[in-house]
Amino acid sequence: MAFSIGILISFIIFIGIGIGLSRKVSSIEEYYVNGRNASTLLITGSLVASFLSTVAFMGEVGFSYDGYPILLLILTIFNASGYVFGVLFFGKYLRRSKALTLPEYFGKRYASSKVRTLTAATTIIGVSAYLVAVTQGGAVLLSEILGVRYAIALILMWVVYTSFTTLSGAKGVLVTDTFMFLLFSIATFISIPLIIKAVGGWPGAITKGASLMERPDLLSWHGITGEGAYMGTPGEALAWAIIMGLVWGFVIAVSPWQTSRYLMAKNEHVAIRSGVIAMISLITLYLFLQIGTSLVSVVNPNIEPSEKVFIWAAQNLLPTGVGVIAVSGILAAAISSCSTFLQLIGNSVARDLLPNAQEGKLSNKKALKLSRLSMFGVSVVILLITLWQPPSVMWIGYFAATLFAASWGPAAFFSIYSKKVTKTAAFWSIILGFLGVVGGEGLKLLGITLPIFLHPAIIGFSLNTITIIVVSQFTVVTEQERVFRAELLRLPVEEMDVKETRLTARYPYYLMASGVILIILTFIFYYLPISKVAQ
């Protein structure tokens, strides 16, 4: 009963925030990008909250519980760096474009409505797939806690995130994301130490996990390998972690649900600081989350499906009050991602697909109405898909995210750093990158096993890069493209504030200091107990 009450209270809070903030939305810029005045806390909160969905708190912790926590941490080192590289080499330039959506940016940069429409279509397809996965994860959790049928839980989830997102747009998403970021961060940092205490404390839980009969190699760097395991040899497992880490690094650097946050930042300094703090937050959260949930195996190695491991621990290993906070945190992560994804899809439909909206012919009032109607219509379609499609939280999410790394990555970075890239090259590179991922996944569905170096994301990314380089050699950059790129590279006068620059210059030192602290913590709390088991 306590869990149900806690969840329902959080739902009421989210809807209340949406209704309250909707009254402050009076322009299309406020609805799409919060009037471009968001603080570092709001941007950081939204960056992390929109990334850490049920894919993380259910799919990935289940993967760790199954025997791969260290492998996921290796992956995280690579993907978290996407925040810093993304904002420095793409995000800050994106903000200079003054676009309201990422497809609008691509359309402006390449002076092409075709490129804008294409990126809008890939946004809608890819983000919709991710939204399906996250919604399903939240519904599975809600069904488990409330003791209701999956379909009822799904509809309840849908009502909550659709209501406040449709009403308040970016303004509501930023505030609720930040609230949820704080909630699930607190939930993680309180619950994981208590879970470790419940399964034997430190260092007992670590030594037991390292020598567990049911999970041999649970805490080894490569995880469980060999016959019947997810992975092949230790080398293949490491290659998978590095490749997927790099792919996800590109996802964080260019995906619409991450980089669109920078469009809302007060200035470039806020965007850069947010990227640094988001990287620190993500690595720290994952260090706690993956190690802690994997150690639940010590007391119960038979949780089915493994995606419910954190939920099981919250209900069985934690004090009731802390368990309620933990479960509410997981659900908050799901809803925050759902709201971000729905906002992106609805915005792209209303702003980037419809000709009148593309050309800016609609009045402010009509544009707002159209955006809200589009968002609601999209949410209904997503609801119908989730009712039909069986849950597969982690793998649908991974597939959807890799679409952006492969189809958008090169076009995004070439748009800033290449003088020769053309609209034709960008158009065909996005198509072939997208088809490369879909084709590679199709081969896997047909039972054709691809080596790790031919992962669908690598196929798509390679096709994309080759296409954009080759086609650019045979096409010509227009004057409009050249001028727009030159404007992007020019540092705006308002970004030259000395005080702001000095403050931002401290953040690399914060990043380095956090890295040293995390290495020391890992050495003391993980390596030392493991080394004693090995002896």
Topology:
Blueprint: H1 2-22, H2 28-33, H3 40-51, H4 54-65, H5 69-96, H6 102-109, H7 113-146, H8 150-198, H9 204-210, H10 234-254, H11 256-259, H12 268-294, H13 309-316, H14 320-353, H15 355-358, H16 364-388, H17 393-407, H18 409-417, H19 423-445, H20 456-473, H21 479-489, H22 498-505, H23 507-534
Helix pairs in contact: 1-8, 1-14, 3-8, 3-12, 3-14, 4-5, 4-7, 4-12, 4-14, 4-17, 5-10, 5-12, 6-7, 7-8, 7-14, 7-16, 7-17, 7-19, 8-12, 8-14, 8-16, 9-23, 10-17, 12-23, 13-14, 14-16, 17-19, 17-20, 19-20
Keywords:
single chain; 535 residues; mainly alpha; 23 helices
Write up what this structure looks like.
The chain is mainly alpha-helical. Helix content is 77%, strand content 0%. The chain is built from 23 helices and no strands. Helix 8 (150-198) packs across helix 14 (320-353) and helix 10 packs across helix 17 (393-407). The radius of gyration is 23 Å and the shape is globular.
Unreliable residue stretches:
none
Count of helical stretches: 23
- End-to-end separation in angstroms reads 47 Å
Q: Name the overall outline.
A: globular
Mean pLDDT: 85
Structural class: mainly alpha
Helix fraction? over 70%
Q: Give the oligomer, counting copies of the same chain as homo and different chains as hetero.
A: single chain
β-sheet strand percentage: under 5%
| Structure summary, number of beta strands | 0
Radius of gyration: 23 Å
Order of helices and strands: HHHHHHHHHHHHHHHHHHHHHHH
User: How would you characterize the largest beta sheet?
Assistant: none
